[in-house]
């Protein structure tokens, strides 16, 4: 719809012809995004349908001053894909329904989801645990460097890392994340 009807207002999205034009303009791109992320044609088609359903229902929230229709639809599709991935992760796997065994770097949505989950889990930790885990594990700094930066003994940093990792594991478990993910 960026090419045709970018001048349309948010209220116009309830118009079937405008929604069809948006689907014609962006449906293929959204399907490609969903398929790359979900790895399944049927689930990708469902994600695109859900994207346009949410767009239609939330037409009053679209503000062309803030973003193009394409960007708005991509954001909705991204949320749909994340929701679908989370829903799938919370259900037991049916034999034969797994994603192909691709290296994680070839599944960017999985990396994004894991990153978002870890980020959310880190926010739930105490500041002392969060700081040392970020510095030691994400910024790859030594415990001695972190100890010097914080003005605490190295043993204190090691202890905070140890208990921080235990707490992080518990928080991730509460969030439904398992060690095999």
Question: What can be said about this structure in brief?
Answer:
By secondary structure, the chain is mostly helical.
List the helices and strands and how they pair.
Blueprint lengths: L15 H23 L2 H17 L11 H22 L17 H16 L3 H12 L4 H8 L3 H21 L7
Helix pairs in contact: 1-2, 1-3, 2-3, 5-7, 6-7
Count of distinct strands: 0
Helical content class: 55-70%
Helix/strand-derived category reads mainly alpha
Specify the CATH homologous superfamily of the largest domain: RNA polymerase sigma factor, region 2, helix turn helix motif
Specify Rg, calculated over alpha carbons: 21 Å
Provide the succession of SSEs.
HHHHHHH
End-to-end separation in angstroms reads 38 Å
Q: What is the CATH fold-level name of the largest domain? A: Rna Polymerase Sigma Factor, Chain: A
Silhouette: elongated
Count the domains. 2
Number of helices: 7
Walkthrough of the structure:
With 181 residues, the protein is mostly helical. The protein has 7 helices and no strands. The longest helix has 23 residues. The N terminus is likely disordered. The chain folds into 2 domains: 81 residues, RNA polymerase sigma factor, region 2, helix turn helix motif (Rna Polymerase Sigma Factor, Chain: A, Orthogonal Bundle); 70 residues, Orthogonal Bundle (Arc Repressor Mutant, subunit A). α2 packs across α3 and α5 packs across α7.
Features:
66% helix, mainly alpha, Arc Repressor Mutant, subunit A, 181 residues, Rna Polymerase Sigma Factor, Chain: A, elongated
């Amino acid at each position: 719809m960026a090419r045709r009807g970018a001048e349309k207002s948010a209220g116009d999205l309830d118009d079937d012809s405008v929604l069809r034009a948006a689907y014609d303009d962006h449906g293929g791109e959204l399907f490609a995004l969903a398929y790359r992320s979900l790895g399944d044609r049927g689930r990708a088609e469902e994600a695109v349908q859900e994207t346009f359903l949410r767009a239609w229902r939330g037409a009053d929230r679209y503000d062309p001053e803030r973003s193009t229709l394409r960007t708005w639809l991509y954001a909705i599709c991204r949320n749909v894909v994340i929701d679908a991935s989370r829903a799938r992760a919370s259900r037991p796997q049916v034999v034969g329904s797994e994603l192909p065994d691709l290296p994680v770097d070839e599944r960017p949505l999985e990396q994004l989801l894991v990153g978002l989950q870890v980020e959310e889990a880190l926010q739930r930790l105490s500041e002392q645990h969060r700081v040392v885990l970020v510095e030691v594990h994400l910024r790859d700094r030594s415990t001695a460097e972190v100890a010097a930066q914080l003005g605490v003994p190295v043993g204190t940093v090691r202890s905070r890392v140890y208990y921080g990792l235990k707490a992080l594991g518990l928080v991730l478990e509460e969030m439904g994340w398992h060690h095999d993910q």
